[in-house]
Each structure stands twice: as C-alpha cells, then as structure tokens.
Amino acid sequence: MPNTAVKVVPVATGILRRSDGRLLLSLRPEGKPWPGFWEFPGGKIEANESPETALGRELWEEIGIRVRQARLLRQVDHAYPERVVGLHFFLVEDWEGEPWGREGQELRWCQPWEIPSLRCLEPNLPLVALLQRENLPSPPLWLIADPGRVSPDRFLPILDQVIAAGLRALVLRSKTPLLPILREALPAWLAKAQEQGVAVFWNGLEDAPHSWPLAGLHLPEGSLVAGKIPAGPFGVSCHSSECLRRAAQQQARYAFLSPVFPTSTHPGASTLGLGGLTQAIANAALPVIALGGIGPQHLVELQTAGAAGVAVLSGILEAPDPASAFFEYLHAWSSSCPNSL
C-alpha cells in the first residue's frame, strides 16, 4: 500500500521584539506561496540542522541580523492546503544589526494588538495573543465591579479591601446612571487605584469623563457590530469565536468570553463549557479572559484550556468577605500550572 503519511516541513520562525514592545513582521513577496500575507520571518529547517541553527541562518539570509539569544515559545503543526508545516516559534530580543529586507520584502514594526488587523498567515496570530498577555495586569484575576449589586456605602470600601488583597484588574460596570455620591467620589478613588497599580476599565451607561484616570474602556459586543471603537485601549465582552475575531481585528487588548459555566443570573443560557472555551482560545488572536459561573475550583482546568485569566463578579463582590474570596481565587490560580511564556 502507498505511504499516505503527511510529511511535515519543519520551519524556524523568529519573533523579534524591540524594547518598546513592537514586533517585526515580514511581507511575503510575489513568487512565494501566500504572497501579500504578513508573517514573522524565518524559513525551512534543513536536514541535520537544529531549529536554533536554522533560525540564525534564516534571519541572517532574510533580514540581515545575527541572533545573539533566542527562546523557544511554542512548537505547533499547521496544515496548509499544499503541506503541513511544523513551526518552531522563537522569541528574539537580543540581536546584532538593523533588520532590512535582504530579499526585497517589506518589513514593518507593529505593536502586538495592531497585528490582527493586517492580512497575516493564520498560525502567527495565536503567538500574538500569547505575547499580548504580558501587557495585561498581573495577577490576571479580574473583578467586574457593579455598584448596583451592593449598597452604595459599601461599594468603594469593598474595592479597597480587594485591592489590598492583591487585585490589579477591574472593570467598573454601571448599567444605570451613577449615584451622585459615587460620581463625586470616583475621581479621587480612581487616582488612588492608579497609584496602587490597578488597571480600571470603564463599562458604563454614561461616557466616562476624560479627566478620570482609566486604563481604558470595556465594550459590549454590540459596540463592535455598530463600529463604535474608541481611540484608546479597550477590551470587549464576547460570546463567540466570531466576536473574538472581530475584536482582535479592531485592535482590542483583551476579550472576556462567556458564559463558560451556568450562572445564577442566566440559568437557562447556553454555555461554552471547557471544550468550547478551549477551541475558541486556540484560534484567538488576543488574550481571552474566561467569565461565567467560575469558582476557585475551576481555575486549574481553565488554565489548561488556555485562558489568559478569569473574571468574577458575584463570587467576590457579593461574598461575605470579598478580600478573602479574592485571595481564594488568587491562591487557586497561583497554585495551578501557569501558562507562562
């Protein structure tokens, strides 16, 4: 019988990252497969050549640099119509020389969140999502803080307690106009939170004043569909892979994906489950934060699924002791095997 096994073509790929966080892309020229697509530079690993050796040779031949140090980020097989490519992605932050297109190809330095808006080869995009995680708050445990869920006099004190316990990522969500007492107190509170290293994203019925020291905005999925995209950093609430794709193309910095598990507020809603979450994350071009029915007992399997973090509302905000509840999530996340670079 004929040998029907698919031959895998091994490839070494270099992700050059400058000190300002920009990554180097190369435009595939005419005469090569997939012309007009952007990719990270690299090429085929020759027989009896290690991936590291091939990386150094290819980057010299393609962009005229000498690699001083490289670190393997991920190894993945990707099936194109004409072949299967075994990609070895290396992060390169130490090199000699200034990159230039030795083969006449165009080069471009881009921030990670800018890359999904370009016409890129598909297997490069999950690496963009992986590297974008470094720009997110740490620890990657997000609190959705809705002042309508607790009494007004307890809202900011609860947030202070959870910040003292280690919270560094917060979406301030208000589905109704803010009470005057809270609107008056928020500017000073936000300034203090910023000094403590807390990234606060606004998701409100009203537009946030420009004077508020926010990390950015958090948008509902409908804003993407309507084309209401802010000029600065933003995240998005998504419920499907199509929304994740659209959010990445619009240069969102992260996305919440929900519901992963059943929730008390939407008991009859269909859920992604771990399988749906894993599949969505595998193809996403931006960091995905899992949301919906998540308790500390879920964090190991959510990390295994590839979640860049988790977001919680009632499990922390409405807990009898919010600081202790947050610490329980933090301990569970830190005790798991982290998806670090």
Describe the structure.
There is one protein chain. 29% of the residues lie in helices and 26% in strands. The longest helix is centred in the middle third of the chain and has 16 residues, at 180-195. Helix 3 packs parallel to helix 4 and helix 3 packs parallel to helix 10 (322-335). Strand 8, helix 3 (152-164) and strand 9 form a beta-alpha-beta unit. The protein has two domains: 8-110, Nucleoside Triphosphate Pyrophosphohydrolase, CATH 3.90.79; 136-335, Alpha-Beta Barrel (TIM Barrel). The radius of gyration is 22 Å and the shape is elongated. Strands 8-9-10-11-12-13-14-15 form an eight-stranded parallel beta barrel. The protein has a four-stranded mixed sheet with strand order 4-1-6-5, covered by helices on one side. It contains ten helices and 15 strands. The protein has 341 residues and is an alpha/beta fold. The mean pLDDT is 93.
